Amino acid sequence: MEIYLPIAEMSVDLFTILLLGGLTGILSGMVGVGGGFLMTPMLIFIGVPPAISVATAANQIVASSVSGFLAHLRRGNVDFKMGAMLLAGGIAGSSLGVAIFNLLKATGDIDLVISLCYVVFLGIVGGLMAVDSARVLLKFPPKNTPANAPVGWRQRMLVRLPWKTDFPKSKLYISRWLPVGIGAFVGIMVSLMGIGGGFFLIPAMIYLIGMPTSVVIGTSLFQIIFITANVTFLQAITSHTVDIVLAFLLLSGSVIGAQIGTKLSGRLPGEWLRGILSLLVLGMALRLAYGLFAVPAELYSITVEQP
Amino acid sequence: MRKKLFFMLLLLSPWTAFAQTSQAIVADLSDREIRIDSRFVGTNLMLFGNRNQAGQVIVVIRGPERNFTIRKKERTGGIWMNSDKVTFKRLPYYYTVLASSEIPSDAALLKTLGIGQQPLFPTAIKNVSPALLEELKSALLKRQEGYHLYHHGERIEFVEDSLFKAKIYFPDRILRGRYLAEIYLIDDDEVRGMETIPLQVYKGGTDYFLSDLATRHSAVYGVMAVLVALVAGWLASTIFDKFYV
After folding, report:
1. Cβ distance of B139 and A295 shorter than 8 Å
2. CB within 8 Å of chain B, chain A residues 22-81
3. Cβ of B16: how many Cβ atoms within 10 Å?
4. Residues of A numbered 84-113 whose beta carbons fall under 8 angstroms of chain B's beta carbons: which are they?
5. What is the DSSP letter of B116?
6. Distance from CA of A259 to the nearest CA of B (A)
7. Looking at CB atoms within 10 Å, which of A72, A233, B192, B237 has the fewest?
8. Are the beta carbons of B16 and B152 closer than 8 angstroms?
9. Interior CA angle at B45 toward B42 and B48, to 5°?
10. Is A255 close to B219, i.e. CB distance below 8 A?
């Protein structure tokens, strides 16, 4: 059955959209990543204009993140104190990020810079995570350990940061600068690259802060809700590219998917989840690198404007 | 007396129009408006008419104009980036041309009227090489034709000698606005008759409400979009909690 989208100005197959939403929702609930990185390319693939794909995906992610967040909250898996500091940093960071974005836009090829950033950061993060997960998985570890706490030089440096406080939910005693700083960095990255907060946030929370995996996902979703809500609103007022009908169809699938995903994440050990996530991140980095160097599917891009 | 005569002639003058021969060509569309609603997947309209003289019938339908910017990707240092670009201004977003017989591509008259297999493109643009212009023009044509927004080559059928009809397709991607159908009767390289039919494409009901809200009251729309997402997420979470715990 086909449904007409008023902002995208085209019709799409209902079942395809629901399925797409459902799959990205499961991912969101399971590993805490909003699903934007999967949804946006898929929407573009089925013919939705790229600008509308990005903005509408952001809108949809608000919903699946709320759904996943509440599910994790019910299990007691959210560290609000940590989340609040991450958010404080995130707000500051995303504002700075928007300024940097506009600066880059004025000078030249913003798309290229964005793609390069993605490849570099995702490649590093994904690579580190994959190596770490492989090491841990092959040694048969117990469930949900904070054994992923920073070791070696990282621990020595991070533990030394001032202004410490207790984070009872995460069972940590660390500097306030850590979540605020990480939140700010993620905020900058999200502004520059659209969606992608989960990709930086979760590995940072696991490996730099040392939070247990069970709390990481819920807390990450908490931050994603606010960031994507902000992006949705800004896109709606600046470029009018949010298609609420498409978003509604997508989120109908994804909010349910997020619930399913959360259930799955409760059943799988932390190491498995980190392993899955690392494969996704690495896969994404490789896919983007390939996209930069390989012959593009579409040699020509066409934008249409009112005369 | 002369004044009275003058006024009488003035009053009678409209009636003289009826003394003329009937129009060389008349035509109409099965519908003068297309309503886009949530079930819209594209639609067909019938064009029909009658010619009172010999000649070829040519129909052109153009939709609202837009500026198209086409960018070409090129490999620089191993990486593909956007490089050359061209903006074609004020091209119709929708263009259909139908004819009762083959349209000669080099007919001078048709060129003057701006009728061809494709919409009229500029032949040269400042600072753009002809080769690049041609290449990017082809890319745009390929895209529009792919979406069925640009058509050509369809035939107008004749029922008997003078009555004609044709089916015209409007795909789901059409934009709303004012379209214009121009029907020409051409014989011996001259326009013998012409008819114009306006066509209004509009979004009905909810779809219009939403797209209007999105463009004119975008802050409200933005807040609404976020709220819908928040509520939906909360709703799903609550329902799942009640039934699947």
Report:
1. no
2. 59-60, 62-67, 69-71, 74
3. 9
4. 109, 111-112
5. S
6. 7
7. B192
8. no
9. 165
10. no
Q: Which of B38, B81, B203 sits opposite A109 (nearest CB)?
A: B81
Give the H/E segment covering residue A252: helix A244-267
From first to last of its 307 residues, chain A has per-residue pLDDT tens of: 889 998 888 989 999 999 999 988 888 788 777 567 778 778 878 888 877 887 888 888 888 888 888 888 888 888 888 888 888 888 888 778 777 777 776 665 666 677 777 778 777 777 777 777 777 777 655 444 444 444 555 566 666 677 777 777 777 777 788 888 888 888 777 777 666 577 778 878 887 788 888 888 888 888 888 878 887 887 788 778 889 999 999 988 888 888 888 888 878 887 777 788 778 777 777 877 777 787 777 788 787 888 8
B226 touches chain A (CB under 8 A): yes
With 0-12 / 13-18 / 19 or more C-beta atoms within 10 angstroms meaning exposed / middle / buried, residue B170 is buried
Closest residue by Cα to residue B173 from B94, B117, B96: B94
Q: Which helix (H) or strand (E) holds B180?
A: strand B177-187
Torsion of CA A74, A79, A80, A82, to 10 degrees: -160
CA dist., res. A112 & res. A128, Å (int): 24
Q: Which amino acid would we find at residue A211?
A: M
Rounded Cα distance between A178 and B119, Å, is 60
Structural tokens at position A122: 């995702």
Give the HSE-up count for residue B121: Cα atoms under 13 Å, Cβ half-sphere: 19
A24 Cβ contact list (under 8 Å, min separation 6): A35, A36, A38, A39, A60, A64, A250, A254, A257
DSSP letter for A142, please. P
